[in-house]
Design goal:
heterodimer; A: 267 residues; mainly alpha; 2 domains; B: 352 residues; Rossmann fold; OB fold (Dihydrolipoamide Acetyltransferase, E2P); 6-stranded mixed sheet; 20 strands; 35% strand; disordered N terminus
Chain lengths: 267, 352
């Protein structure tokens, strides 16, 4: 059942690429230009160099704290996705397929809740968490685990749907594998694309999150940038750019490893 | 010659096994004894419970009641990974991220066989199924038939107690299917491994099994050698499912059926009354001169090479298939007279 595929004219494609590219790149270019301003007319790397200026270290300290916190949160949130969400989804798909609809509904629910509404519910919970687990910034990862849930769910489920999970698991079981081995050696490698995508989304959400951290009085990269922005607009923009670059490199890396893993599925 | 270890074959017994899915009972007090080294097929239409029975032996389902034994040991509640079975599934079940060799050695790795030895054994198992040269290929680089061969090699390499085959040929095209089933039979005989084969294809079941269990609606209707099933089917379901047959009106009187004015013995006997009889195409013949027989009109006549199969409609409306010499050509619409061999027939009560 082959159907002629519609290819737009090269000129149309070029135009679309240019417009979209400009839309993305112009603000970025403007941001870069802004960080390079020196005085009213000149350009230099003075604001970039300022990051490492010991005399300003005190003023920039919140950024380093926020960055460290955000990196920690990133790791914990990814762990929540990989070691809590993914095994639960595998369990639901293998053993309780009837619960899939319900699970999907619950998993997708957070996408319809504005962060501000979420915080209202989270505040009393975090009072308890503060008393039991302390007020460390890492505890935000529980809330982030919920905000990334819909996105992580979708990407993992897509890769689950792409393989015959039940048969693969049963085949491995019949060959003598324990459940842990089934997940580690058979299912995880075949769900790699989805797990990678889910992790990346978790990272992106954590690095860009402001509302929840701010309203729960925890410091992360975004709240720190906001704070420093009041004293030095340049350096906060420099850090924003670096965060963006970091995400871009991460995306590239994940794309690369993902495609190496997918080598076996190309045809 | 094979690295696949020879071990004493295992017997398998299902005793009064019941399986419910929710409120639906899919297996009714199933009793099945499979002798050590035997090749038994579970044959039946879809939904008859044959796959469920196999999955119970594999431990992929737990019975609602009853017990399963291997070599006399109760394995009813033993998890799949500790049953020491080999299984080939209907859908392709090779691990997509591993090549043929690594797929094949998976079970050996689970059993902590030394790396070099596992590799050698896996290669020999691949040789056994005729795929020695394709060990480095990934599943997506193999045809459907080759994938099922690798799955077979993977299931056999650990020299399991029982080999369970869940319609492994149904996704393959006709030629590969016949080729592979003959190979399965050869390998099974060579290794002497107890094998349970699930299929809905009666030709397949008859061709490769020592014994066939015909299942219908969660029960075993009959278990026997292919010859027994074909020649003396115990129930109408078996007669209808095994081999080809046409249904013709019959009147039973005193244990003998009268069909087209001829008397034919009835399998298992039946009370007097009106029945329908299952007659095989090879037991129906064209009447010779002065032989009488039933009048019929030819509908189709198909050349099969060595013979010809003709469908003819009786005056009473039933279509009867008969097999006859290829050189007797029958035109559509021509009138013929049919007679029947005095071979025993199975009868079912006429409905309506």
């Amino acid at each position: 059942m082959s159907r002629a595929t519609f290819y737009p004219h090269p000129a149309v494609r070029a135009t679309i690429a240019t417009v979209v590219g400009a839309f993305v790149l112009l603000p970025l270019a403007a941001t870069v230009e802004f960080t390079l301003r020196d005085g009213d007319t000149g350009h230099s790397f003075v604001h970039w160099a300022a990051i490492f200026d010991p005399t300003k270290a005190e003023a920039y300290k919140p950024i380093w704290v926020g960055l460290t916190n955000s990196l920690t949160l990133m790791v914990v949130t990814v762990a929540v996705v990989l070691f809590l969400l993914a095994p639960t989804m595998i369990l639901v798909n293998l053993k309780f397929p009837k619960l899939r609809r319900l699970f999907e509904f619950v998993a997708l629910l957070p996408v319809s809740l504005p962060a501000i509404v979420l915080v209202v519910g989270l505040t009393p919970i975090y009072l308890v968490i503060g008393r039991t687990l302390g007020t460390g910034a890492w505890t935000l990862a529980f809330a982030y685990g919920i905000t990334v849930l819909p996105f992580a769910y979708r990407s993992i489920q897509a890769s689950i749907d792409a393989v015959n999970l039940v048969t693969l698991a049963e085949a491995a079981r019949s060959l003598g594998a324990s459940w842990l081995t089934v997940i580690r050696r058979v299912l995880a490698p075949n769900l790699r694309g989805g797990l990678m995508a889910a992790s990346l989304i978790a990272v992106a959400v954590v690095l860009g999150e402001f509302t929840i951290a701010s309203l729960l009085n925890r410091q992360n990269l975004q709240t720190a940038l906001m704070l420093v922005n009041r004293q030095d607009a340049y350096v906060s923009v420099v850090f924003s750019l670096m965060a963006l670059l970091f995400c871009f490199v991460l995306l590239l890396l994940i794309g690369r490893t993902g495609s190496i893993g997918a080598r076996g599925k190309d045809r | 010659m094979t690295a696949v270890l020879h071990r004493t074959a295992t017997s398998v017994a299902l005793d009064e096994v019941v399986k419910d899915f929710g409120k639906t009972r899919v297996l009714h007090e199933l009793k099945l004894e499979i002798r050590a080294g035997e090749f038994v097929s579970l044959l039946g239409p879809s939904g008859c419970g044959k796959t469920t029975a196999l999955r119970l032996i594999a431990g992929l389902e737990e019975p609602t009641a009853g017990s399963i034994r291997m070599n006399g040991d109760d394995v009813t509640h033993l998890p799949t990974n500790r049953r020491d079975i080999g299984m080939v599934f209907q859908s392709y079940s090779l691990f997509p991220h591993l090549n043929a060799l690594d797929n094949t050695r998976f079970g050996l790795d689970m059993r902590k066989v030394a790396k070099d030895q596992a590799k050698a054994m896996a290669l020999e198992s691949l040789e056994l199924v005729g795929l020695g040269g394709l060990a480095e290929r990934y599943p997506h680089e193999l045809s459907g038939g080759q994938q099922q061969r690798v799955a077979l090699a993977r299931a056999l390499v650990t020299s399991p107690k029982v080999l369970l085959l869940d319609e492994p040929l149904s996704a393959l095209d006709a030629r590969v299917r016949v080729q592979l089933r003959e190979e399965i039979q050869r390998i099974q005989k060579e290794l002497g491994i107890t094998t349970v084969f699930v299929t809905h294809d009666q030709e397949e079941a008859l061709a490769i099994s020592d014994r066939v269990a015909v299942m219908h609606a969660g029960r075993i209707e009959q278990i026997g050698t292919p010859e027994e099933l074909y020649l003396t089917p115990a129930t109408p379901e078996v007669a209808a499912f095994v081999g080809m047959s046409s249904m013709v009106p019959a009147i039973v009187h005193g244990g003998t059926a009268r069909i087209w004015g001829q008397l034919v013995p009835v399998v298992g006997g039946a009370a007097d009354g009106e029945y329908r009889a299952f007659v095989r195409p090879e037991n129906v013949h064209l009447a010779g001169p002065g032989q009488g027989g039933a009048a019929a009109i030819v509908e189709t006549s198909v050349f099969l090479g060595a013979s010809r199969r003709t469908d003819a409609r009786l005056a009473s409306g039933e279509v009867v298939s008969l097999q006859h010499a290829a050189d007797v050509r029958l035109e559509r619409g021509s009138a013929v007279r049919l007679v029947i061999d005095p071979a025993p027939v199975v009868v079912a009560l006429a409905e309506g």
